[in-house]
Amino acid sequence: MKRKVLATVLSLCMTTSLLAGCGNGGAETVDPTIPTEQNTTEQNNPEEVVDSEKQEHEPVELTLWVTSRNADDWSTDMEKQFLEEHPWITLNKVVKEGDPGNEFYQAVAAGNAPDLIRVSFTMMNSYMASNILEPLNRYVENWDEWGNYTQEYVDMFTVDGNIYGVPSSVSPMLFGYNKALFEEAGISEPPKTWDEALEAAKLINNPDNQITGYATLAAEWTEWFFQYYVWQAGGDLTQEKEDGTVELTFTDPAVIQAAKYYQKLRSEGVLQSDLTLKFSDLVTNFGLGKIGMMPFAGDWVSEAIANGIDPDDIGLCLPPAGPSGDQTIAIAGDTFVINAKTDQAKKDAAWEYISFYSSKAYHSSYFENLATKGAPNPVIIPRDDISVTDFYEFPEEYKEVLDAAKSVGRLEFYGKADFGSYVDRAVQKILVNPNADPEKEFSEAQALCEKEVLESFNEAHKK
């Protein structure tokens, strides 16, 4: 059943009793017609099937990290279905708050990690280089659904021919614009280049009505947005070497071009006047109709609508191209991985869990459930045989931009978790001080980063 995007929207980050992170949530009941591995092969008495399965497999207990958030009826039903189809598997669910995937590395070292987990894309580069993830080739090559996974995401988690993750949820960082403000300013289409974006921002900007033409992060996590502009200028902030170590490239010409564009947005008076506004403030203000355009992830749509914006006024497109002509964006999300240090029986059981919760049947049921509660955000299902737009009547441009995002998305710059704060401080300096020299600020930031963390990072990640 397709539905119009509603003013009251359920965030895609629905809570479950399964693995932590955005993605698993769900429908009220399980469609009994959904084929499963067991109910499509034989019509035996259910008790006989269960007994047979128990005899074929030794009992296995899988340890999962979960949050304490309550599960809904649908997620409980899905877990029940999984356990009925895999009677030899039991689940030991350990409560972990926050983002448990970020603690996985330390837990593996300490010997108390879960057998499988969902890890954010941000952490995957470091995890793949640290030998804590089990290669999944032997599993995916015998899974008839693997061929339906989008190749771009398969490649993101493949190193030297080894596949380390099955992507679960994908949220692209797009570019959002307020269609109503664009129309009022006489602008008929979103900007395609940095220069067009600046000119459009000038037309939209209206301080008397508290309307900001253009917004970006300036008070926190500035490296998060800033990296997109560096990519669009044709460069990067770091360079990963074949041995897993990194070279810092804070003074790359593309970094300086991106910094100067930031300064131009500021000097032209189209950037938010209050540079202390944080991420949540920007998303809120966009929803209040006070921002003309800004980097904008697909999974922020629901929050913007909750703050009052008409869903039809939310425009999404690829970001304006920089000097290089590129429209590169970051892809966020999470991926299922298996603990390389657990025993083989647990690895095999972990794969049964992953393949169940990664199937087309599961994804379809998940989004069908959301249709009963509103509409989700326009995000990417990392498969080619199903799309979130199959379930809801989003604007046509959403489907187009989600399809386009598959080919221009990439992981965040290598080592971001360790080096991002140094970039953050340099960006803040060039925004706060109009006379700041970008080359000087980023050169000093790189020198400090090399002195304080580069050596330890390279020692930890060298293959």
TrEMBL record:
Sorted keywords for this record are:
Signal
Q: Does the keyword Phosphoprotein apply?
A: no
| Signal peptide (residue range) | 1-20
Q: Which domain of life is it from?
A: Bacteria
Stretches of Low complexity bias are at: 32-47
Q: Which InterPro entries match?
A: Bact_solute-bd_prot1, SBP
Q: Does the keyword Cell membrane apply?
A: no
Cited Pfam families: SBP_bac_1 (PF01547)
Q: Where is this region: Disordered?
A: 29-56
Question: Which SUPFAM superfamilies does the protein's record reference?
Answer: Periplasmic binding protein-like II (SSF53850)
Q: What is this protein called?
A: Extracellular solute-binding protein
Protein's organism: Zhenhengia yiwuensis
